[in-house]
Protein 1
Amino acid sequence: MTPRLDAIGLVVADMAASLAFYRRLGLDLPAAADSAPHVEATLPGGLRVLWDTEETIRSFDPEWTRPEGGDRVGLAFRCDGPGAMDALYDDLVAAGYRGHLEPWDAVWGQRYAVVLDPDGCGVSLFANAA
């Protein structure tokens, strides 16, 4: 069997804070999951996003430490258009999440921005240029 990408895992310090952020990006995550040590969401097309608390990871990898010095993996969310992307960025920043790169028209033909999730990971927002 050929391996296939099935899931993207995120290690989080605060499950409830992380899930609240990703709910604002449209992921369907039940409120009861906020106190769980492991959460999964299946996206259209079957790819899964997995969240584990730092404590969960340490339960089977006691020497695990939080990465330092920048993003290792980045998630990117496509928006319906430049206006929708700008509005989503503004909504996230107004909700208290940290903007990292304000919306701009990228040379590669997209409207682009980056906001930080509660663990400081950069999450890209983009839309095809008008």
Protein 2
Amino acid sequence: MKKKTLTALIWSFVDKFGQQFLYFVTGIILAIPLNPVDLGKMALLAVFVALSSILIDSGFGSALIRKKEATDADYSTIFYFNIGVSLIFYLILFALAPFIESYSGVPGLAAVARVSFLSIVFLAFGMIQQTRLIKYIQFTQLARINIISLFCSSVFAVITAFMGWGVWALVIQSLGMAIVKSVLLWIYGRWRPKWIFRVASMKE
């Protein structure tokens, strides 16, 4: 257990450091073809995505990690809950996009927001798989998934930015990372939801 914990800590550090390094390098490269307005648009939208992800999980992920004998019914129930809430949040933000544009005073932000906010839904599909990797101390797999997804999405962002796509290059980075990460979590997480939804699991 000590060895497993030490390995987990090392890979957790590699995960955090690797992501920060990739974000730093990508940010420097993207600053060349993009203007500060484009970067500001995505910074504003990132706040909504981050807050939505926290609210969608609602602490159920942590509860599943702490629960000693979580069942497939528990995992499946929270999986469908996450998907349902993510769709609700997306529809709300979709409707609010014009007001966000009006409030920020940035023309064209509504269209960018509506596409960018799709990452909320895609991330929800991989929340339980990520929770299980953390629960079973599989930080090696989690680090690989995070770094690979960020690397792939950053490469696409850099290519499209230099092709003149502007802020849409940043949308590709955000949305691409969510999609690739969820796909990898499904591949390496190996868990699949059952057709079960138990209110008792949520109450517990």
Protein 3
Amino acid sequence: MSIDGNPQVLIIGSGVIATELAAAYAQLGFESVIGPLASAASLKPRLIVTATDDFDLEELRHAAEATGAETVPTIEASELTANRQRTRASANDDLGLPTLEHEFVTDPAQLAEAAERIGFPCVVKPGRSTDGTGQSVVREPGELDAAYRAALEASPGEGVVVERYIQFDSEVTILAVRSVDPATGELATWFCEPIGTRHERGRLVQSFQPAQLTEAAMDNARSIAARVTGAMNSCGVHSVELFIDGEEVYFSQATPRPTLDGMVTRATQRLDQFELHARASLRLPIDATLISPGASQLVPTEGRAVTTECLARAMAVEETGVQVLASALLMRSTGETAEEAQERAARAAAAL
């Protein structure tokens, strides 16, 4: 059985985000095809779903106009979030959101001047949002050149951002889901419980849900997420990354689709981030209920073999599963508390 009308969905991207989205749409009766934008002309899909921001916006616009397909997220949301400079400018100038002091630069000399103004230590990031690749904490001027090269290599032609470094209490991702409320027929926003994250050298290492926030910090976090998603005017899951410093909350970036941060929802929620994204893009009812505290931990696998024996050791940890990704293993554990789930995921990672 397939959905009424045009049943095809074209997923742009690769890796776990694309495959999980394809499965989520298939569960709703769609024929999911993972492929390049060029295939839209022959497929004439009902939806073009971008699972990455590594695509040409003009090509996406042309494909949508030529086929009549709806894009998920909208082209406007993709334009707003693909580039850090555009995202931060909108957050500061249009929405008045609190962000860390930052500047955008296009050459090493500008970077040195901006770093002196902002002060050391500082953070140097690629101009385009990435999975953490190319991000560096710079503690002295002699480290700037290497940080600039790393950022530019991760995102060529997009410039570099230098940002004030703070010893924040925690990093939190809010998954905000935009869809139609069946009770009112109007667009509404649902919030998943906050996801705590931990990064090393800019790369995600661990996620856990729910993250414990004070009432004031929670209100601030959800207020920021609501304003950001409202500005995007796009249905689906929006991953809004924030820094928490006491009751102060700073906007970092937003991604209008599922991310690695939200992989923990496969274990914690009645509907995971991929199911929520598929439902919301079709304006279907949303259920963001948390059913169990949980945690996930990423273990890189570059240069090492993954054997059934090592999988067995990790899976022997109670309430733990393992998912094999392209270049990492993802431990996913549940527990009575998020702390217990974190401990189990860490034990599973160590068992490898």
